[in-house]
What we know:
Elements: H1 16-25, H2 34-52, H3 62-80, H4 86-96, H5 107-118, H6 123-145
Amino acid sequence: MNFTKRSHQRPIVWLAPFLIALLNACSTISVYDQFAYANATSLKVDTLNLISAATESYDSHAKEVADLTVRLEKAYEYDRGRALNEKSVQLWEILLVTKPDNPNSGVYQRFIAQWKTEGRLSATTVALKKSTVSRDFDKIIALESGKTKS
């Protein structure tokens, strides 16, 4: 035994598992969630299909709008309830939460309000809105699919 070696100079291998656990606890983003991913992809398709119908009368699609809006809000609330999921929540808010000081917020809500007010929308407007909503859903989907699988 080497009595000249001080105890603080010995390797602290026993500390490694604690450091790994600490680093994992400091994660800044949630892990991948299959339900959230499947829900987002399904809602993207349903939302784009509904937007395509906006060249027709809003009144003839009001029930579909109400049903889809509830499903979108449920997905948003699901992601809000997940720990370390702030980035996903921010992306959902761009799509669903209209903020008066941010004209890029509430893309879906603003679209529905415009459709309801105007009664029906031009094919050009519909194509533009589909592109914007598709892009916003793609961000949500890409973020979820890029998360660490547990």
